[in-house]
Design brief:
There is one protein chain. This protein has about 500 residues and is α+β, with helices and mostly antiparallel strands. About 45% of the residues lie in helices and about 15% in strands. The strands form two sheets. An eight-stranded mixed sheet has the order 1-5-4-3-2-8-7-6. Strands 9, 10, 11, 12, 13 and 14 form a six-stranded antiparallel sheet that branches. The longest helix is centred in the middle third of the chain and has 38 residues, at about 230-265.
Amino acid sequence: MTRVRRPANRNKSRASFKKAIKNQLDEDWKSEIMNDEMTTNTLWRVIPEVENSGILTNMSPEDIKLQQAQFEVITSQASYLRSLNVLVDHFMKDSKMMDPSILSNPNRRIIFSNVERVHEVEQRFLRELENHFWNELKLSRVCNLIAKFCKEDFDVYERYIQNQVYQERKLNDLQKNDAVFTQHLNRLEASPACNRLSLMSFLLLPFQRACRLPLLVEAIVNAADYTQDKHLLKQAKHTLGQIRKLVKKCNECAKKMQQTEQIAELARIFEYPSHVKMFALVSQSRYLVKKGEAQITFNNDSKKGSKVYKLWLFLFNDVILIARKKNSMLPSGGPPFEVIDWAKRSLMYVNEMAYSENTIFLVLLENQSHKKSGKRVELSIHIPSQNEHSRWLQALIPPTEGDGGEKIYEEWDCPQLICIKPYQAVQPDEMSIDVGDVVKVTKKTSDGWSFGERLGDGESGWIPQNYCDEIEDEHVRARNMKHQYKAIISHQ
């Protein structure tokens, strides 16, 4: 059992604390919980003010557990902020680390990112948590405060975590190639001030905190479920949903940065001959689905003994590139692949009616080679390995039919609906929509319902199609071209 040290001048400290809250001045405020060196093992019920207040008298064991679950948010926040202070004060503000001749300003921005902004937000968060605790002792608004910061401030996590891909690489690169920087970093990491832990372990703190918050809120939900406090239970469940959305966004940001980096690397391996329109490959929304070598025949010029080409396919979520690998023995240098054609994935069709063993019949409804630009190109793709053939087929043909005849769309092929009259959700799996809301549809059923994600806030659910209009875009054009092609081959 942890007993908490009582400062001799607690009343004066409390007064300065309230003054700091009122004036919103971080420099005037000192955390009492951090000063008291409370840990996540500190029990709420043994805090002297709680013991002396008399509020424990009429509390059940379940009520006390609920208080402890909320109190752990505060003590863990204090512990996190102590470590964050080390990152800022010991590492980032070290005089040598602030010297541009040792750590250049661009590298400093990559390594420390927006950690000062994260630190400022976390300091305010702890301050408001402590203000709630010391003023009321019996905690009831911890989840409200988490939800408030999720809405207003915790987007700082997204930017920080998004940068971590570059952060870790840059740090490793400097440690390998910059002896002066490494010397000063080793000095800092050997200090007792950071418990001889590495800089990287401190740089990971914001990500770890973002992942831990849902667990802390989930503990509050579980504890509240055993009490009669239905209002707090409802608020805790709402907050858990908010914090999970935050973590999901952070993970998506990190994944997108990794994908963007991979796309940037891939963009450097392609060159475009004069007869092929260049495609701007780098985009934050693009990612590689599959790549590989195959034997390809162009069926448009099909004659007996058509030539078979060894080519590479690069399938992205929204485009396919067909490339020839250049001869590595030639001294020409430059990118290793030459793009011979490409097409948007929405203008690509797999003819499942045609069959040949281990062969995929692919149709580019609109190609980009200037020799026959905008024309339909039919390819026979032969993949000797049965396993690779199955995997390519799965990558090229996403599932289109679900249970009950519902239409399923891939991310790159989703139509969009715009609400023309408001609809109020009736069932829990439905979504309320208002005039002007734009919804990205991922499923459609034959009885007039669509499942999708509202672009404004990411909320998803079922909506009635007769309350919306479909936005006319490339999706409609591509769909019409596919129907036209099917009609052509059905009459052959």
